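tl;dr need the bound structure. longer version: we got a ligand (flavin-adenine dinucleotide) that a collaborator sent over and nobodys looked at where it sits. i said id run it. heres the input, straight from their email, havent touched it
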Amino acid sequence: MSARRITIVGAGIAGLAVARALALRGAEVTVLEQAPEIREVGAGLQITPNGHRVIEALGLGGEAAQEGQRAEAVELVDGESGGRVLRLDLLQQRPGSPFRFFHRADLIGMLANGARAAGVEIRLLQKIDSVTLGDGPPRIRTALGDEVETDILIGADGLHSKVREALNGRVAPFFTHQVAWRATLPADPGIRPVAQVFMGAGRHVVSYPLRGGHLRNVVAVEERRHWAEESWSLTDDPLALRIAFEDFVPEVRGWLDRIERPNLWGLFRHPVAVRWHGGGAVILGDAAHPTLPFLAQGANMALEDAWVLADCLMSFKAPEDGFADYHARRAARVRRIVEAANANAKNYHMSGLRRDLAHGLLRVLDRFAPAT
Ligand code: FAD
């Protein structure tokens, strides 16, 4: 591709990863981020071997080894009896492909440093209000009233993407009747580097360590009738969380008892975008294919997208040819993963089907862990 101005909206995982991947290939890249600083609220992320391979390809494997904590196993546990249903030993089964736990802030910080080191300009306080795509170059308007024209516009602006909206119109997501509470708490000494899923009828709790075992990440999901907002900024009464899991094993109840201000998030299903590109713009990550968190693949898919998009864009003379190749290489895989995550929600919440569950998870991990 000849020299063009590339503007990326969103300094999340997808935006920062594609920014570094493009800059390493010689592109001139600017990232516009609405937040006043690069920082992540949120908590933990599981980066599976497929996502990790992208981090290594970005030249950040050494930093990842310092920032992340290597996982030894994934365990499925019956939340009411405490009996182990399945253990997937990651060190034995995949010795060469790390699976790591990251605090989101550490992963984002690592990618932002990596992007800046490759020459990317990251501009903060740049909330994009509207995107215009047509025959000419893409144009964006910021909330401060600035107009920006660019040769290539990359939408990495997450769930409520303006770039996706400009390409596809507005599509309303639907509430899955599931909510997730999320919190971190100081970990007990000796916490094992294991992701544990405690399952019960209509609910489950996921826990794993962060920051070298100093913190415990807890995500608790419950099926419920009433609506909750799709936003991490909502907090909830910790009593609601404790009541939802009051018949779970004392180990889990002990963690929940220590959570004072859990964040509450309504889990919505968004369709995979029909149009991923057009008029000089393209989308990736959650902007293109938001996924429920039950396979821990949203961030991993964002990393894979970033690598493939940069490769496609720099391999073709005309950006639209690169965009089309990127879509062709990614669409079927992400659709499969979004569907598998939807199905996994049901698996986790079944009762009396622990065997099927165990086999289902094994199949899923085996199918999706290797990168394409
Ligand atoms: P985002 O991370 O949402 O980044 C979008 C960026 O764009 C943000 O910085 C935002 O401020 C900015 N932005 C948005 N709108 C604008 C605008 N108008 N103007 C300027 N900037 C804008 N995935 C995993 O792989 N592993 C896990 O373990 C995992 N756990 C999860 C647990 C839960 C409970 C949930 C809900 C999700 C989980 N995910 C996980 C999914 C993962 O968090 C997302 O898929 C991932 O963050 C998507 O990255 P992204 O860069 O596409 O979007």
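gonna send this back to them w/ a short note. The longest helix spans residues 319-349.
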